[in-house]
Write a structure and sequence with these properties.
This is MFS transporter. The protein is 74% helix and 0% strand. The chain has 428 residues and is an all-alpha fold. Helix 1 packs parallel to helix 5 (94-115), helix 7 packs across helix 14 (330-355) and helix 10 packs parallel to helix 15.
């Protein structure tokens, strides 16, 4: 049964009926993986919450240079996304590949201590951390897809992303707490933070190994069919028109999304906030994400995942416009950060919930990695382009251009993504 058969589930509204809200309906694997992501994000956000501020205000990088750094921060995941996805399918050990990625990111936290103040060393450690993320993401999402009934995939990814966001919300607060206790003037204080981050990441790896179960039942493969996982078979996924459409949409959506760091830097400058507020911007965004990811994921299962995805990008266009309007002060910042977190809640897990059912089980991780890779490459290009636009046009014109790009992307995505339930064979 090829990918075309599974296109019948794209954007299909499940039968209406009582859907109990709670973790039990999506299974223990989703909750376990959510716990792993929660711990990992606490560890990661402890370190990364102030990096944009550090690069621009301390290292005095220009907006264009920061765009390159920010794009590479995401682009560093690209080489290992496809490798991790293919290996997980080839070895049929998605949990093991995911654990390797989580472990690599954990070890990178110790590298921060060894790197000291070397920009080159810090860059290498950041690349290693992001490579670990690239290696683990597709296998993790494949585990979620396989452990959840298709009508509940939006909810499952929403619950996972909500737990993930809880870690992203807590991370900067944990970092501020540690630095408040040990001080912020010595290198030893930051080494204490990095060491704490390492042990929290180790706890995440242990949670994955101990509590996560991997399904081995090929539910979507006919009896007697060989589960061939080869480079040729993986490349064959691209012959399916429906998957290509999904990849086109993922690329367009990635191209219209600028980095969080840019959003927070513009907010700080346009709203005249002191630099000390900067780490709290991520906290505000992640609070909205945490509260809404689960409900919006469940709503996407009811009203259609494509509709939810496009609604989220409409909110992103509103964020870009509000950043360059005279709307100022703390209320304006709260509205902007709330909308930004809602955008993530409406899009992040929903795209994966759209992609999972399209793919055959034995190549599902590879296919999810393809979608994520296209997004990451597009994001790299978007960050560089926005940095250049800011440097050459100014922040107002760059922000307006970003909003227009999102609007165009929404219109094109309506056409590119199929809007009706397709029958087997329609996609070819």
């Amino acid at each position: 049964m090829g990918p075309a058969v599974y296109l019948s589930t794209i954007d299909r509204k499940p039968e209406r009926g009582p859907l109990r809200i709670g973790f039990t309906r999506v299974g223990g694997t989703v909750v376990a993986l959510g716990s792993v992501s929660l711990l990992t994000d606490v560890s990661a956000e402890m370190v990364t919450a102030v990096l944009p501020l550090y690069f621009v205000l301390v290292l005095h990088l220009s907006p264009a240079a920061y765009g390159v750094v920010d794009g590479l921060y995401s682009g560093a995941t690209v080489p290992l996304r496809l490798v991790g996805g293919f290996l997980a399918d080839r070895l049929r050990r998605r949990k093991a590949v995911a654990a390797t990625g989580y472990g690599l990111s954990a070890v990178a936290k110790l590298g921060l201590i060894g790197a000291g103040t070397s920009v080159t060393g810090l860059g290498a450690v950041i690349v290693a951390d992001r490579a670990g993320k690239g290696l683990r993401t597709a296998p993790r999402d494949a585990l979620i897809t396989e452990s959840t009934p298709e009508p509940l995939l939006g909810r499952a990814f929403g619950i996972h992303r909500a737990m993930d966001s809880a870690g992203a919300f807590a991370g900067p607060l944990v970092a501020l707490g540690i630095l408040t206790l040990v001080g912020t003037t010595s290198q030893a204080a930051f080494h204490s933070l990095f060491l704490t981050s390492f042990w929290i990441a180790v706890a995440g790896v242990l949670a994955l190994v101990v509590f996560t179960r991997e399904s081995v039942r090929p539910r979507d493969v006919k009896p007697g069919r060989a589960l061939e996982v080869t480079p040729r078979a993986a490349a064959g996924l691209l012959r399916d028109r429906s998957l290509r459409r999904l990849l086109y949409a993922a690329g367009l959506l990635g191209l219209s999304t600028v980095g969080d760091g840019f959003v927070y830097l513009i907010l700080m400058r346009r709203q005249d906030f002191a630099a000390g507020w900067f780490p709290l911007f991520a906290v505000g965004t992640n609070l909205a994400y945490l509260l809404l990811a689960g409900p919006l994921g469940a709503l996407a299962d009811r009203v259609g995942r494509k509709a939810m995805l496009l609604t989220g990008y409409g909110l992103l266009a509103a964020v870009y416009l509000l950043l360059i309007t005279p709307f100022r002060g703390l209320p304006a910042a709260c509205v902007i950060l709330g909308l930004y977190g809602t955008f993530y809640a409406a899009t992040d897990g929903v795209l994966m919930a759209l992609a999972g059912p399209v793919l055959p089980r034995h190549l599902r991780t590879t296919g999810l990695a393809c979608v994520q890779t296209v997004q990451a490459v597009a994001y790299l290009a978007s960050s560089i382009a926005f940095g250049l636009a800011w440097a050459n046009w100014g922040v107002s014109r760059a922000g307006a251009a970003a909003a227009v790009a999102v609007a165009v992307t929404i219109i094109v995505t309506v056409v590119v993504l199929p809007g009706r339930a397709q029958q087997p064979g329609d996609a070819r």
